[in-house]
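Structure ticket #2291
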Amino acid sequence: MKNKMGNYSIPYGRQHITKEDLEAIAETMQSDYLTQGPKIQEFEEAFAKYIGSKYAVTVSNGTAALHLSAMALNVSEGHKVITTPITFAASANCIRYCGGEVVFADIDPESYLLDINKVKNLLENSPMGTYKGIIPVDFAGRAVDLEAYRDLADQYGLWIIEDSCHAPGGYFYNSQGLKQNCGNNNYADLAIFSFHPVKHIACGEGGMITTNDEKLYKKLLKLRSHGITRDVFSFENTKEFSAGVNEEQAVYPLWYMEMQELGYNYRLTDFQAALGISQLQRADNGLQRRKEIAKKYYEAFKDKKFVKGQSKFIEGHAYHLYIIEIDDRLNLYNFLRTKNVYTQVHYIPCHLMPYYRQFGWKEGDMPISESYYENCLSIPMYPSLTEDEQNYVINMINEYYKK
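Resolution: structure written out below.
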């Protein structure tokens, strides 16, 4: 992408909106439904098929997806849940929204994912029943081995929420050699996705929850819409009350609905769903392009002394982000900005955010995460990044270190 002066202006991530996307939005904007219409179910069914899950529930954003997942699993005061400090804060905050306690465990230095051995140590050194669940994150797009986490969770009676915001299209192979898509819920109770503009599928804002559990699915449908249901088979009040008559033959009238628990307005609009459907149709092409970009970055930097770490190319990685660990990060970051290359840091460790420090977390608690944070930098990664633009990014990084 070039600015008005004809110079490069390259962000770390950006949406790609096509003519087909705009047509899909326009068609829905002119329909009878802007919200709570047929595009919602169409998007849910298409997404569930793409991921390989039985059920999918659209919501207003990824944070709402996490919040409702925690609610559906009955997280409440006193419940302890384990997650990674290297993630967007929402992965942890959803537990706090429900009054639960977040317990961080450190990451693996090579994958940057929640280290299962650290989680295992926490569980083994605590009385049975101390913890209620685990939230592993498919960070940057790399798939967590959820089969291993399921085995561990079953030993301790824990649920699993898979945070797959970075990883639609990502996968790993289980012990039988079978491909397991991120979010297919063969091992997790629930999985969540985000449709923020820099994600694989952009809806402006938006999120999705997937599950194979029908009870959780039905509960999520209520929770996303004020706790209200129109399902006649789940009504609790009598037919006589609903119809306002005192007759044995009374039926539930079409207007009738019930608020059965405290929920939220976390609904997605139909025109956002229309955009999501359109974007989903070319999701595989976008994923393939991300992998091509990742391969080129890996080859460009694998032998550079200034690069302290980068993941080897992994076929099942969804490459929402491409991260390198480098010397002199701050000065490189500032230098690249002068060259109109806009990088980002993912993430400041959650346990060192002022909010979480109040619970006793401090520097030194997560040494691998903290070491990673000192050097990590996310460089431009998105499907519409051109070959010339990527070459420019690589050349500017090399130019800095030559100096």
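Closing remark: The longest helix spans residues 283-301.
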